[in-house]
Write a structure and sequence with these properties.
Blueprint lengths: L2 H10 L4 H16 L8 E5 L5 H9 L8 E3 L6 E6 L4 E7 L8 H9 L4 H20 L2 H4 E6 L12 E3 L6 E3 L4 E3 L2 E3 L1 H8 L1
Helix pairs in contact: 1-3, 2-3, 2-5
Length: 192
């Protein structure tokens, strides 16, 4: 297990197939683009799974900096846009790594898995993780150029104080009701 994967696992909290998938995608992207210090590299993730944590850890694309955009389509697809190169790569994790595991995964999710099946599942998971970490890029990843406009840079908005709860919020998220400026939460509680 290399240092980058160890760091990603520490960031994520455990080792799993999803983290391994994101690691392989991020590792490939890192070979083409440097780690983002600010917003030079933007990731558009088409999922909100464990794989996204590996991208955050390895590439510095985070929600807090505004260079991680989640467009959840439930697909292991990541588009990396380099502001420096004005170029984007679309990486789809195509590896059929869960073959033979679907029934056990469903049983596990529903809580109907037996002890024997749980052991089998742990063995399969370990094998899947190993296959992902050691597989060839061409077997696991579909990489194409992506023709997308440059994603907007993160914007900083002034803060306002909600006239109901007195908490600060980003101006653009404000609402008005009965002549008062409210945060989204207070506005929605009023409307409901």
């Amino acid at each position: 297990m290399d240092e980058d994967f160890k760091k990603a696992a520490e960031f994520h909290g455990h080792i799993c197939p999803g983290l391994a998938m994101g690691y392989r995608v991020a590792k490939y992207a890192k070979e083409h683009y440097p780690r983002a210090m600010d917003e030079e590299l933007v990731c558009i993730a088409e999922n909100k799974s464990c794989s996204v944590d590996a991208v955050q850890s390895l590439l510095g694309c985070t929600a807090g900096k505004g260079n991680l955009i989640i467009e959840d389509n439930g697909k292991q697809v990541f588009i990396f846009y380099s502001r420096d190169a004005n170029r984007a790569l679309r990486i789809y994790f195509k590896g059929d790594v869960f073959r033979g595991m679907d029934a056990l995964r469903q049983k596990m999710a529903s809580g109907a898995i037996t002890g024997t099946e749980e052991k089998e599942m742990k063995g399969l998971r370990a094998k899947v993780i190993e296959d992902i970490l050691n597989g060839k890029d061409e077997d696991l990843l579909s990489v194409t150029d992506a023709d997308i406009p440059a994603p907007e840079k993160a914007r900083i908005y002034p803060s306002l104080i909600c006239q109901k709860c007195s908490e600060r919020f980003m101006e653009i998220m404000g609402r008005t009701a009965n002549g008062k400026v409210l945060c989204k939460d207070c506005f929605e509680k009023m409307v409901c």
